[in-house]
């Protein structure tokens, strides 16, 4: 066997060994890499801290589970967080992972716990939406070769909302969030960037929050209740005074 053939065989063996080493390393570290990417990218995009306890990826079946996802409130808001989800599931078409458009068959967000906070600068979801828009500005222009995403089905179900505002004196009011179902996100746009997908999800949530929680009505209701209580107390105190006078 010539020295040239030996070198070719050695290079081939080393290359295959390195390939298997990389695959083995990825298999053991992919969950951690995905978790760190979600937290880093999510925090940068929303300008609010994103934390995730665990990411579990099944590459063979194209399934991903994200556990204990928390999106903190952006700067200027007092509540502990904006969104908390114990678990949500993604199902990806594995064959598309190497293509320009990655197809996600479905995203299921179940029982999100949302705090909808109003302040003099608008709501926390207004600010999150503005932050994502700023992130997606001209400085983040996409290359034609960048990966994009298409989501066939998105569901957000069994959500709970707590409305919070300064005029409520620390007493939140709870609401049930209507279930939401969306199809073909990114289909007409030939795919969405991860930031654009995040903006689309926040927009859907914000729309439902606006229709579910009316802070102006809540404020008027509380003012009316306070006025009624004051009148009742005034009338009651007058009645007590009159009864006391009748004793003398």
Topology:
Layout: H1 3-46, E1 50-58, E2 63-71, E3 83-92, E4 101-110, E5 113-119, E6 122-123, H2 124-135, E7 148-157, E8 159-165, E9 173-177, E10 180-185, H3 194-212, H4 215-245
Helix pairs in contact: 2-3
What does this structure look like?
Strands 1, 2, 3, 4, 5, 6, 7, 8, 9 and 10 form a ten-stranded mixed sheet that branches. It is elongated and about 90 Å long. It is built from four helices and ten strands, in the order αββββββαββββαα. It has helices at residues 3-46, 124-135, 194-212, 215-245; strands at 50-58, 63-71, 83-92, 101-110, 113-119, 122-123, 148-157, 159-165, 173-177, 180-185. With 248 residues, the protein is an alpha+beta fold.
What structural category characterises the helix and strand content? alpha+beta
Number of strands: 10
Q: Helices and strands, in N-to-C order?
A: HEEEEEEHEEEEHH
Query: What is the rounded distance between the termini?
Result: 127 Å
Which spans of ≥5 residues are poorly predicted at pLDDT below 50? 16-26, 225-230, 240-248
Q: Please give the radius of gyration in angstroms.
A: 27 Å
If you average the pLDDT, what whole number results?
Answer: 82
